Amino acid sequence: MTGDDLAGLLPEGLLLVAAVGGLLLGLWTPQAAQRRVAVVAAVGCLASALAAAAALAGPARTVFAGTWTVDATTGVVRLAVAAATLGVVVLLRTELAGHPRETEAYVLALLVALGADALAAASDALLLVAAYLLASVPAYALTAFRQDARGTEAALKYYLLSALVGVVLLVGVTALVLATGRTGYASAGAGLPDAAPALGALATLGLLAAVLFKAGAVPAHFWVPDAVDGASPAVAALITTVPKVGALAAAFRLVAEPFAEAPAGLALAVALVAAVSMTLGNLAAFWQSSLQRLLAYSTISQVGYLLMIVAVAGTVEPAGPALQVYLAAYAVTNVGAFAAVAAVPRRSTPAGWAAGVAGRPWLVVSLVVCLLGLVGTPPTAVFVGKVAAFTTAADGGYAWLVVLAAANSVASLFYYLRWIAPAFRAVSSARPRVAGVRRPAAATLHVAAATSLVLGVALGATIGGA
Length: 466
Fold this sequence. Notes:
It is built from 20 helices and two strands. The protein is mainly alpha-helical. It has a two-stranded antiparallel sheet. A hairpin with a 4-residue loop joins β1 and β2 (68-70).
């Protein structure tokens, strides 16, 4: 282990120190003062983001004998994960203040973030297995954290499906070793073209199935709406943002590196998964009455748009920057959407949420920015991400997928308007202000909306200038 190895893991090390330090601090902290652990978790996220930003200026490299990649994609994922986890910590504090297990919630969220970073940086199949488990096991506990029937059922479904896919992942790693004798992406990729086609296909299926499950892509998406609807809004924001960002970066790295040459038709298969994910996610969201289920299906459709970039990984040069832009934009905007739900507790339908924000027009304005941002409306950050995704897919020869994605983006406006319209009516009817809005969650919504706009304008100006 060298100094360069340790420096390459500094952002993750800071998250780990915050998790362990927060857990130890919680053991000696009175129940009424567990906000101290929330502060430690928030500081850990900020420190990780600063370390990640500093590392972005350096050259791309691998550490720990080529098993961990530090490049632009890893750096952007680190920043997105740290920012999203910081927002989740604020939402958790809003929901769990005074809870006897409040400390454990912050620690589990940090461990999920650590697993997401590892998914994005992994350049070895065995490290990918460890990252998959680290991003999954704490999330099960958080999903059932409220200890009610819905949360327990959701966590059980999440766990069982994840365990099943984990076995598929191990089968894929075994096939990769049998085919090439290696687990490192670079060496395994060099050996796959000469390996038995059946083993190569099995290795590809096993590894990609696992990361696409974590991302929530069709057909391994069934856990997403149940887990999101059964969890609290803060936990729902975490599991639909942080592991997904890491998993999509992992999928991009797999397609671009070890599976760049084999098997034939992989890019088309990913494109078909993208098409089905964006379409099914939108269709299923149309008539959802639960806001969290609506956003759950929305995240499935967003994964479909992101997989357009994964389909052309390694073949279109701007694919990497396009993925980075979209991942950062999605992380900010999705946390903002769930913060809107968390800001108005016990109002889980569009009409109920609208009644809860009467007299608070700025909440509705920020909600509109986040939801129209998910549609891809300028000048939000997701708009820039979608333009980059569409351009990249078209350059890769998937014009049909671009047309389908554009149609899905327009169609998604329907179910977002089902939430926006009653909220506008409520704030324009001069109803008296209703008490009960959670201010930290509302502040998170406002920050996410402002960040989406600023990031969108900055990215648009950068791309336009280039």
